[in-house]
Amino acid sequence: MGIVRQESIKTTFFSAIGVAIGFLSQVFVFTNLLLPSIIGLIKVIQSFANLFSHFSLFNLPGSTLRFFPYFRNKNNGHNGYLPFVMILATFGFIIFFILTIAFRTQILNMYVERSLLFTQHFNIVFPVIIGISLMSLLSSYLRSLFKLVYAAIVKDIYIKVFTLISVLLYYFEIIDFDGFLITFAGAYALSSLLLLIYVISIGEFHWKINRAFVDKKIVKKMANYASYGYLSEIVQTSIIEVDKLMIAAMLSLHSTGIYGIVALFSTVLNLPQQAISNISGSIIAQAFKDNDLRKVNELYKKTSLNQLIIGSLIFMLIWFNVDAVLSFMPDDYKNGKYVILILISMKLFDMGTGINGGIINLSKYYRYMLLLNVVSLIIAVSANLILIPIHGIIGAAWATCIAIVFFNVLKLSLIWWKLKLLPFSIHYLKALGIFILVSFFAFKLPTFRLGIENQDINSFFDIAVNSIAIFAVFSVLTLSFKVSEDVNDMYNKLILRIRSWFNQ
């Protein structure tokens, strides 16, 4: 477990770097170097490729984490597990490639009127799909081998750096638009190739399949597991990607580009939530194995509280600096200000409900998740169909917000119904009170200026002063009122470490 914990910490660190690179490059570089319609084209290609890759992979990455331990045997190449799943993935890609070509006209007809650029360059999605699929498959394989770090570097850092390079090459006219799209797709191909080279370099790429081991019994078990997870995963991915795909079909690539960029602000909250989920997952699984509902309840309350604390701080740092941040971007993106507010509010609600999805998935009631996902997808699609024509990208934000909030209410209700557990406590109310109080304080903060004419420097100074003030007041109140035992423990350990450094 020591190795796993170390790898997880390193992975979270590199993922954080990746989030920073992706956010800063897209918000401050892409918006100033590319037209919103081109950014919209990139977003639609990525959304389509993400959805397609989940269709064609048959939930093999999830099955790898579940079944690889049965295959594990270094001496005989893990019984040929890697070539076995790669063959299945290739078969899945061919099936859905044929289906996509067969229904190509129907797919493109949805976009030809309002997003013609996507229909003209539709074929670029296929190399992106191959890159995403191969990275997903190899990443899950490496995770099963407890080799998490390099996969995180490739998926979270390399691909974003390569994409940034493709944008710079296009902006400085080193390549034309077609060359830009090829280079953009090549970023995914190169990243997946680097991951494959790494697997080979550590001696974990094996060609031979042990046919005696891969019998009907193990294949049937994998198929049963994958089929359920497959449907659930498809629906979850659809909920995430449907807004951008529907904006492109119903509005324009220009609107998709603006929405895709401002939606990035809400993804900043994903990292702490994902880190907490990764750490708590194994603990919940063990608690259910031991039938220890008291432990599950304790963890449920702790994660919801800690996620609310982290999420509310990030929410305030984003929202009360949003005008200054948008000043660095072209005027078109200012129309997305309230999209940011809606989506970060949605994400804060999601974080504040804790690890409810993980609890359901790891309990005996995991089959309910498929039903909850399907209901949420129906709500998302219906809401988008109704709200996008009326309110544009703000309507899309409201549709996503409604679907995710409803999804979380359903999960909360299911856990209460079946396990009689809720994530709320008196400390939770304290955290909400502090969030409201500091938000009022931040709202009253004046706009800070250095008294010079340079708008960018003034905006940067305003962001810095606002952020320091919000962080300081929020931290003092959270620590003083002892809202979270974990937060206070981390603070005390940090103070002890700083004192030890000075004493040396």
Explain what this protein looks like in three dimensions.
The protein is mainly α. 81% of the residues lie in helices and 0% in strands. The chain is built from 22 helices and no strands. It has helices at residues 2-33, 36-57, 60-71, 81-102, 104-109, 116-120, 125-144, 149-171, 177-201, 216-250, 253-262, 264-267, 270-289, 293-319, 322-326, 337-352, 356-362, 368-391, 393-419, 426-444, 455-480, 485-503. The chain starts with a helix and ends with a helix. The model has no long low-confidence stretch (mean pLDDT 90).
Main sheet attributes: strand count, strand direction, barrel closure: none
Give the structural class.
mainly alpha
| Rough outline | globular
Q: Indicate the low-confidence ranges by residue numbers.
A: none
Helix/strand order, N-terminal first: HHHHHHHHHHHHHHHHHHHHHH
Residue share in β-strands: under 5%
Question: Helical amount among residues, as a percent range?
Answer: over 70%
End-to-end Cα distance, whole Å, is 32 Å
Summed over residues and divided by their number, the pLDDT gives a mean of 90
Number of strands: 0
The value of Rg in angstroms is: 24 Å
